[in-house]
Automatic annotation (TrEMBL):
<keyword id="KW-0285">Flavoprotein</keyword>
<protein>
    <submittedName>
        <fullName>Methylenetetrahydrofolate reductase isozyme</fullName>
    </submittedName>
</protein>
<dbReference type="GO" id="GO:0035999">
    <property type="term" value="P:tetrahydrofolate interconversion"/>
</dbReference>
<keyword id="KW-0521">NADP</keyword>
<dbReference type="GO" id="GO:0009086">
    <property type="term" value="P:methionine biosynthetic process"/>
</dbReference>
<comment type="similarity">
    <text>Belongs to the methylenetetrahydrofolate reductase family.</text>
</comment>
<dbReference type="GO" id="GO:0005829">
    <property type="term" value="C:cytosol"/>
</dbReference>
<dbReference type="GO" id="GO:0004489">
    <property type="term" value="F:methylenetetrahydrofolate reductase [NAD(P)H] activity"/>
</dbReference>
<keyword id="KW-0560">Oxidoreductase</keyword>
<keyword id="KW-0274">FAD</keyword>
<comment type="pathway">
    <text>One-carbon metabolism; tetrahydrofolate interconversion.</text>
</comment>
<dbReference type="GO" id="GO:0071949">
    <property type="term" value="F:FAD binding"/>
</dbReference>
């Protein structure tokens, strides 16, 4: 099923989706598969599987995505990057998706590899829009295509001097007009910034578009700091103050505060956009506890849960790694 069709069918009812990454080891994969079984009971509208820049995880990504789609019957979306890679890898991924009933692709540019690699780089692909056009050209409307956006502006490398939504906006509009069906954002912790971004996009586009905010639950203070640094997401003072030095090392406390914060961010976005933004994408980092608690405790999201109490028991007895 196409994500965009499922969203339309909901007619504004709140939903959520989960992102997973393919584990490196067999043991990691076994743990994730067990967890995926439990997390599918949370009734996400769809799940996404990340793609290592340059195609480094291609077969693991495809395997995991096919398992999600076929074995777990989850509507699945494959992330796909197009730079520093060969057209063959892209073609193979699209064909594997097509052959296995996966109808959703998140079309991305990707970051340059950290180490110089010898890959047959295809100059046809410079930006994500080139991949959007390529998929539409090869497969017509078969795929539902998502694209990435940055509520605080995209940062190239580490130079954040040009970080602004105005800089990216024309290119985002181009991606949407080239045939993208929905937008998923980079993680953020400043809901005001997301709302400003959403309103600007809507105004500049001149029509509605599905924008799904990307949210990363806070599992530990260290991971929170790392994620915000890497993604150049700002921490508003009111959020920073939730984590005074004496709680930063208490993972359970940090997690609880993070769960409440996420629920507040979801509520704020829903209210400020008058329910126009009704879907929330969780970067799970392959962990289940925080996400399960967020959807269970959120009055907006919990109606999607059909087995909430049963699930709570299941997660309490499961380990996180
Ligand atoms: P683009 O839309 O191409 O934009 C990249 C930059 O180029 C922006 O600064 C934009 O303003 C600028 N730009 C765009 N078009 C033009 C143009 N025509 N002329 C000049 N400038 C232009 N990476 C992975 O490797 N694997 C993943 O699985 C993955 N998943 C992601 C999921 C989400 C939701 C997000 C937000 C990001 C993800 N990324 C992933 C990271 C992403 O690949 C990087 O952020 C990358 O640097 C930009 O990708 P993009 O698709 O946004 O690029």
């Amino acid at each position: 099923t196409k994500i965009i069709d499922k969203i339309k069918e909901l007619k504004g009812e709140p939903f959520y989706s989960f992102e997973f990454f393919p584990p490196k080891t067999d043991n990691g994969l076994r743990n994730l598969l067990a967890r995926l079984g439990r997390m599918s009971m949370l009734n996400p509208l769809f799940v996404t599987v990340t793609w290592g820049a340059g195609g480094t995880t291609s077969s693991k990504t495809l395997d995991l995505a096919i398992t999600c789609q076929k074995d777990l019957d989850l509507t699945t979306c494959i992330h796909l990057t197009c730079t520093n890679t060969s057209k063959k890898l892209i073609d193979n991924a699209l064909k594997a998706a097509y052959d296995n009933g996966i109808k959703n692709i998140l079309a991305l540019r990707g970051d340059p590899p950290r180490e110089a690699q010898e890959v047959a780089v295809d100059q046809d692909f410079k930006y994500a829009i080139d991949l959007v056009r390529y998929i539409r050209g090869q497969y017509g409307d078969y795929f539902c295509i998502g694209v990435a956006a940055y509520p605080e502006g995209h940062v190239e490398g580490n130079d954040d001097s040009e970080q602004s939504i105005d800089h990216d906006m024309p290119y985002l509009l181009e991606k949407i007009n080239a045939g993208a069906d929905f937008v998923v954002t980079q993680l953020f912790y400043d809901a005001d910034k997301f709302c400003t971004f959403y309103n600007t996009l809507k105004q500049r586009l001149g029509r509605d578009v599905v924008v799904i905010p990307g949210l990363m639950p806070i599992n530990t203070y260290q991971l929170f700091q790392r994620a915000t640094n890497l993604s150049h997401a700002s921490i508003p003072p009111a959020v920073g103050q939730l984590f005074p030095p004496d709680v930063r090392h208490d993972d359970d406390k940090v997690k609880d505060i993070g769960v409440k914060l996420m629920i507040d961010i979801v509520d704020q976005i829903y209210n400020e956009t008058h329910g126009e933004v009704n879907g929330y994408h969780f970067y799970t980092l392959n962990l289940e506890k925080s996400v399960a608690q967020i959807v269970d405790k959120s009055s907006l999201l919990s109606p999607r849960l059909t087995v909430s109490s049963r699930f709570e028991n299941a997660i309490e007895s499961s380990s996180e790694d």
